[in-house]
Amino acid sequence: xxxETSQTLDRGLRVLKLLADTDHGLTVTExxxxxxxxxxVVYRLLATLEQHSLVRRDLGGRARVGLGVLRLGRQVHPxxxxxxxxxxxxxxxxxxxxxxxxxxxxxxxxxxxVVEPTWTDYHVAYRTGFRHPLDRGAAGKAILLxxxxxxxxxxxxxxxxxxxxxxSGAAAPLLGVTGIEGSVGVVMLSDAVPExxxxxxxxxxREVAEALR
Length: 213
Fold this sequence. Notes:
This is Transcriptional regulator. 41% of the residues lie in helices and 21% in strands. The chain is built from seven helices and eight strands. The strands form two sheets. It has a six-stranded antiparallel beta sheet with strand order 5-4-3-8-7-6. Strands 1-2 form a two-stranded antiparallel ribbon.
């Protein structure tokens, strides 16, 4: 800590990061140990964060991330979209298919940026704001692939007809971007995705990840 920083704010942010890294929440005692402060300090931090809906406590007393964090997260989408656009434009023009950036929103996949190719006679209309389950469609399956402790295979997902009849998709997960879970992919009217598209979406996902770091 330096003279220009706030110790209380720093601790509060550390609480949020710790809670974001666990699926089952943390008790006051667990947070106290992880932060290296006494329980009274933790109680005060949690009470303040609860007032802003950034933290909630369940009936068992375990603290979890609150819905207020989601509201803050939605404001990040325009910034993420802007950073991703150059890589998406390049991908759409190169492959000749609609390119998209998809992020996790709760239990769903949410398209936050879409770029359509300019030179094709026809392409799939895929709109920003489109949602679908994580276990359906290439974008969601690529995200689930990244959640594996030891991902195997080529590092991208191919699907056909899961979200729209006659449409195929390919997507690769965003890797190494703290606090963001998502994928970059393309969707096209085709019975199958050409093999070269898989490595190309991996490359685009890497470019987007670098832009977001």
